Amino acid sequence: MRMTTRLVFSSLGTLTLAWALVPGVTSAQIISDDFETDTSADYTVVNLNDPGPNDGTVTFAFDYIAAGIPLAPRSDAGDKGGLKFTANDTTDDPFDDVWTAFHNTALPANVKLTVDMYIGVTGFSGTTEYAHVGIGGDGTTVNAIFSPISGSGDFIAFNGDGDVTSDYRWSRPDATGDRDTVSGSGETLDPSYWAGGSDASLPLYQEIFPATDFPGSPGNVWATIELTTFEGTTAIAVNGTTIIAGPAVQGGGILAAGLASLGYGDVFSSVAQPAQSQFGIFDNLTVEESFSVIPEPSSLLLLGLGTIGLTTYRRKRS
Questions:
Q1: CA proximity to 163, closest of 199, 132, 205
Q2: pTM listed for this prediction
């Protein structure tokens, strides 16, 4: 398999290696859902506060074109449907609304998941909500990055406004199956994060989203997310640029086969104003069996991480 390497220089003179993976040979698709019709029967939807009451919505075949949102990048002209989530619509309890929708199709351990994602952000009050994409899920455990840390499988969570120091959160099990850490808090120089950390202010994220309403974050724009796992290693790419690559299981081991998941939630004590002005939409979910070899970046990244630690990026939620 061929791989290309990009050299990214920050304004601090930092050199970061960012390999763009060229897809390997994959089998026929295992899952394909364009959400043009109501496919809710194919999913198990769970909430952190089940059996409720839950303060949000999950809408299949949501007409996002009618809502004024542009067509997803991998959709055909005339398409209009997506999977929409809202959270904490009326109350400020972070335990009310963290959603996970598991596709009911059992997957092999080595897969490539691709999906288009849109995080809608209006105003600056209660804006920090997270969308997530995952594989290896158990179908019952809600994926949450904190309040509390919860989940199954391997998943990546994003916010749309870049308003905390942990805007890109990767969550993995450890070798015993427990989930007691979430890698990459604000100033962490975890080599799995090719940007040098998880803050949207870091140069690599700024390069991916240079001119959005919230630079460095996928707020009010479509982004295509790819999550590939192969023989115990995971790589996560956004708009074709790999942002994270490393062991799918902390401490080693192969990620257990499981389910694909999409989700959304508000993990903070806040209510977006106006109500439902923050939301997440997914479109064009595909999952293929993966035969791709994923690079091991840890040693190479050390060439470029030396000076990132000189500057920390901290912001307060508005």
A1: 199
A2: 0.82
